[in-house]
Design brief:
The structure is a single chain. By secondary structure, the protein is an alpha/beta fold. The protein has helices at residues 2-12, 15-37, 74-84, 87-109, 123-127, 131-142, 155-159, 162-174, 189-195, 205-208, 216-230, 243-252, and strands at 40-49, 55-66, 70-72, 116-120, 149-154, 177-183, 200-203, 234-237, 256-258. Strands 1-2-4-5-6-7-8-9 form an eight-stranded mixed beta barrel. A hairpin with a 3-residue loop joins strand 2 (55-66) and strand 3. Bound molecules: ligand C2E and magnesium ion (3 copies). One magnesium ion (MG) is lined by residues 181-182, 202, 238. Ligand C2E is lined by residues 45, 60-62, 73-75, 78, 91, 94, 120-122, 152, 181-182, 239-241, 259-260, 265. It comes from Mangrovihabitans endophyticus. This is Diguanylate cyclase (GGDEF) domain-containing protein.
Amino acid sequence: VAKSLGEGRRRRYTRGMDVAAGEQARMGAEMRQALDTGQFRLVYQPIVELPSGRTVAVETLVRWEHPVRGPVSPAEFIPVAEQNGLIVELGAWILKAACAQAAIWRDELGPAAPRRIGVNVSARQLAEPGFPELVANVLAWTGLGADKLTIEVTETAVFGGGQALRAVKALYELGVKIALDDFGTGHSSLTLLQTLPVNILKVDKSFVDNISMAGRHAVIATALIQVSNGLGLDAVAEGVETAEQAAELHRLGYRLAQGYYFGRPAAQPDFAASAELPSAA
Ligand code: C2E
Ligand code: MG
Ligand code: MG
Ligand code: MG
């Protein structure tokens, strides 16, 4: 036993892992400082209606401008923040700032303002006791209606059940919209749909990527829009980069889309701009 334990230890602390762990610890410490000195900011990406290209909602995405390293991708630092727990504080800041921004747009732009704002929430945040209360407090504080907020969760974050699932149910009861992010990439996407209260399916970019080449991607994208329609949910196609993809998605029945073709994430997106689909010739 002692021997296998020793071997296990040695394998765990190989040099490569050490460096990675050190790097993680350093990033964690720097994130703490970044929070205190205001290095995080938010950008918003339009979610548009097809075929008009009109912005109906936005998704909030966090950005970190490191004073020395420059921009750090959330794909890199969010997992670290989840691991060391900093996501709880960072996430609360993101939620407040996003809802405050949505209220400002509503007041300043009136009918031209996006109707809903989406905020990504990680597993760790959902599992935190009191998360639904935090959301309710932020809504009260900003005066934003519950139905104007979409909480984006991933399938893996809620699949374990427990507190995360209870939180999603409580948010749904509150009237907050629930979106399943990166839909179709989890291990049990359809199983989850049988029980999870949800309003929106965000169909993952991987199904959109080769959609114009009438193959299996298009077949799956069609099946997903049928499931979505059948359950009375909204489907948003993620990661739309070309006019061809947008046109094909529209042809397959998609009414909502998001991606670089329609607009990159920006601090102040141009809500008047629209990339209307070229009408079929
Ligand atoms: P996500 O929630 O699925 O966000 C969509 C990602 O796709 C964003 O990357 C967005 O910039 C990118 N994207 C949008 N349109 C296109 C496109 O046409 N082509 C390509 N190639 N990419 C596109 P980003 O901002 O780097 O965020 C990556 C992930 O990090 C997010 O995936 C989300 O899981 C996480 N994340 C970002 N912001 C937050 C946040 O505020 N809180 C939490 N918990 N996670 C966040
Ligand atoms: Mg998202
Ligand atoms: Mg997504
Ligand atoms: Mg995605």
